[in-house]
Prior knowledge:
6-stranded mixed sheet; 722 residues
Amino acid sequence: MKKxxxxxxxxxxxxxxxxxxxxxxxxxxxxEVRVEDALKRLTVEEKVAMLxxxxxxxxxxxxxxxxxEFWMTDGxxxxxxxVLWDEWNQAGWTNDSCVAFPAxxxxxxxxxxxxxxxYGKSIGEEARYRNKTVLLGPGVxxxxxxxxxxxxxxxxxxxxxxSRMVVPxxxxxxxxxxxxxxxxYALNNQEINRHTTNVIVDDRALYEIYLPAFKAAVxxxxxxxxxxxxxxxxxxxxxxxxxxLNDILRGEWGFDGVVVSDWGGTHDTDQAITNGLDMExxxxxxxxxxxxxxxxxxxxxxxxxLERIKSGKVGTKELDEKVRRILRLAFRTTMDVNRPxxxxxxxxxxxxxxxxGEEGIVLLQNKGGVLPIDLNKVKKIAVIGxxxxxxxxxxGGSSEAKSKYEVxxxxxxxxxxxxxxxxxYQPGYSSTASKSVNDSLHTEAVKAAKGADIVLYIGGxxxxxxxxxxxVDRESYNLPYEQDALIADLSVVNPSLVAVMVCGNAYAxxxxxxxxxxxxxxxxxxxxxxxxxDVLFGxxxxxxxxxxxxxxxxxDNAAHAFNAYPGDGETVEYKEGIFVGYRWFxxxxxxxxxxxxxxxxxxxxxxxxxxxxxxxxxxTDNITVTIPIxxxxxxxxxxxxxxxxxxxxxxLPRPLKELKGFKKVNLAPGETVKVNFTIGxxxxxxxxxxxxxxxVEPGKFQILVxxxxxxxxxxxxxxxER
Length: 722
């Protein structure tokens, strides 16, 4: 009989002691005192056992001392359904459904830290209700190439945006007594050859582009755990990497939490001992195949470690450091007497998923004011595209969610219009059918479009292999299933065409000039269809902004321009350095299809003139930037005011623009607000590898404020003196 995973783990009965209660059970004592008291009571065997898995998603506690097991769950978009003890197959429970929240690209597109806090709080409550110790998320790996199959799980191409969005997510999760596990640390920017590729990157790019979001999660978010990445850096796997874990994470940033391996990311006992790994999961060792049972004693931090200790080959200094961190995790989570109880599938969580989805939807194009749709002027809508009826919270890898329900776009549209107008649906294409079947679907869709007042094309990608999916990258920058030809044909027979794209990546749009309205809807989770309908029909004014650039063609992307992706299977060199995303487009004067930060509204916003409280500052001073924003349209709406910095006299190459501030403001028609930013040393600095520090050089700086990286509305200059 197969052993089933029990996510609702209970601590065993606490032991009885003849004397007073152990200090580690006394919640009134300081955390570190409790940690040391528990540590000295553990045997070497118990300590080693705590370092590695006992099942697919759990590691043992210490029953003798009443220390509970540690239960992990995949996220970061919903609490993963329970699986069998030793296998990836679902356990078949009927009470392990969850709310599927929008993908993190959608969250990043809100450009709203308040939405990130709501997201973290809500998903943290669901994880707590299921009695999980650690939520394996969020992901903050930088969007380096549009072909990365896992981009939909991350927060875009800009380190500042990702940093500001990750902090409240972590805080929201952890207020529930569940540890956020920020991943994948670090340089995991492609799925192809992810287990074997050694990343070569210069220190400026490492510190300025790929590390800031992790640093913010640790130092500002106070994350309790970090997950190592699969790839290598400086020839060492990231899950046991001296430079990333000991030197930077703990040495420079002061991280006091637990480093968890990605599942199967551990490769060497000696490096795992010395190079900063604390908890090992998912290893396939001793010749045992993926999915085999009872492999846990053969893990690198299991018997091999214990044998080294008993033979005297290694001491117990590193062991005690690891166990201290694991005990700290226990006292912050399952052994916290004030830990809340959590909740799941609540009305509040469904509402949170809908709000986040609505705020993240980006209106890319709206020629002629096609949107919002006026139902008084429409009698028949043709909805075309497989993604109109496809559930997207399932599949895609470890971020899949077993949602209690999912409102697909067609359902949301029909629910909104009710019986007022006719809605005709045609799939247009199938992701599983043959060429001949797809030809027939194409023909029927074009026929349906001819007789409609407006066509809502709902396509994009899905979470199939080589789409938005873990473990593999995309094989083409174009849309799959011959959608480009279908969209072009639809535009010929009906000029009132709206393309609603459901996906988590950029893609080519050879048809974009023929389509009046384009909406980037992302993967919206449980409430996706309702959120899409609310935006299309004007119930909600779109306010999302792109968290990454859309190149016209793949060669416009920096990594591809340098032929620096995907590498040769053993190494990949980040030849573009710090010039990632919009930084590259600005440097090379390449016009993107849609720029980083771009997003339209159903109203309009006027930007006034920037004022500065100083014209000259010292490198340690702050400067206050003020700009008035007016809603000059006739609808209430929200605008994301974006502040970029340019160092005009730098001794080293620097980007022409770097995002260093943003604020989302909601304005009634005619309303004006003054938006303030405080800029200081951190926003003006660049990293110097030779000095291993951040430096502000004296000289002239420019502040640029606008509504997108390519749409600057006002600027001002100031000087920094020695």
